[in-house]
Design a protein that fits this description.
There is one protein chain. Helix content is about 75%, strand content about 0%. By secondary structure, the protein is an all-alpha fold. The relative contact order is 0.22. It is an enzyme of class 3 (hydrolase). Keywords: Antibiotic resistance, Cell membrane, Cell shape, Cell wall biogenesis/degradation, Hydrolase, Membrane, Peptidoglycan synthesis, Transmembrane, Transmembrane helix. It catalyses: di-trans,octa-cis-undecaprenyl diphosphate + H2O = di-trans,octa-cis-undecaprenyl phosphate + phosphate + H(+).
Length: about 270
């Protein structure tokens, strides 16, 4: 196995962990970076499978809260409603992801120009939303109504277009439907758990025969890097967005999209 593949996997894993939970599109960043690094994986599995490292970062940070919710399920209507709301929000992505998996991986993942354009457009939309004088009605992710959760789940489906950002779509949708920034980001964290575990399981199953032991080692390197970087982001993001909003991420998306377009036009 070439050392270059390991170094590329480490870089891409760090990018995954740093970008998964902020509204900039981790998949878009990984696919673009992989394109310019000349990194390839069978069936584009790498970008999906290393997301599990970021999920473990959430689980480690929220372990105590998740345990409290689990133990409260038999006696707490609020805990049961919250779990139901997360599963309800996950449902649209589960259905569409399973039906459109092959098209997403073989067409959308292979179109870097589209990714750049979507990064720019999404950045503009996020910037505008962050500047709107919205008045939040929901400030606790644990008490979102199931109907609101389902609508946020529909927004999440937009993220199947690489460059959109799963967290960006869910957060922007939640803000427009009356949530505050902190609870929108936290709900996006919780929704990421079933969504990304489901994507991991589906992608691993679809490509089980195409992966070699070398591929698994490279994925493991990216997985570990994503876990470490994800810990840093999850621990700091909620406080940051509560104080400063999403403008920085909107600008970042636009800059990366423009640089990507320039790179594609110059180097191909």
């Amino acid at each position: 196995m070439a050392d270059q593949s390991i170094v590329s996997a480490l870089i891409l894993g760090l990018i995954e962990g740093l970008t998964e939970f902020i509204p900039v599109s981790s998949t878009g960043h990984i696919l673009l970076a992989g394109h310019f690094l000349g990194f390839k994986s069978p069936g584009n599995t790498f970008a999906v499978l290393i997301q599990l490292g970021a999920i473990l970062a959430i689980l480690s940070v929220y372990a105590a809260k998740l345990l409290r919710i689990a133990f409260a399920l038999p006696s707490s209507p609020q805990a049961r409603r919250f779990v139901f709301s997360i599963l309800l929000a996950f449902l649209p992505a589960a259905v569409i992801g399973a039906l459109a998996h092959d098209f997403i991986k073989s067409v959308l993942f292979e179109t870097p120009m589209l990714i750049c354009v979507v990064l720019i457009v999404g950045g503009v939309i996020l910037y505008v939303i962050d500047r709107l004088p919205l008045k939040p009605r929901y400030t606790d992710a644990m008490t979102y109504p199931p109907s609101l959760a389902f609508k946020i789940g529909l927004c999440q489906c937009l993220a199947m277009i690489p460059g959109t950002s799963r967290s960006g779509a869910t957060i922007a949708g939640a803000l427009l439907m009356g949530t505050d920034k902190r609870s929108a980001a936290e709900f996006s964290f919780f929704l990421a758990m079933p969504t990304m575990v489901g994507a991991f399981a589906l992608d691993l199953y679809k490509n089980r025969d195409a992966l070699s032991s070398d591929d698994l080692f490279v994925i493991g390197v990216g997985f570990a890097a994503a876990f470490v970087a994800g810990l840093f982001v999850v621990r700091s993001l909620l406080d940051y967005v509560s104080r400063r909003g999403f403008t920085l991420f909107a600008i970042w998306r636009i800059v990366v999209g423009v640089l990507g377009l320039v790179g594609l036009l110059v180097w191909g």
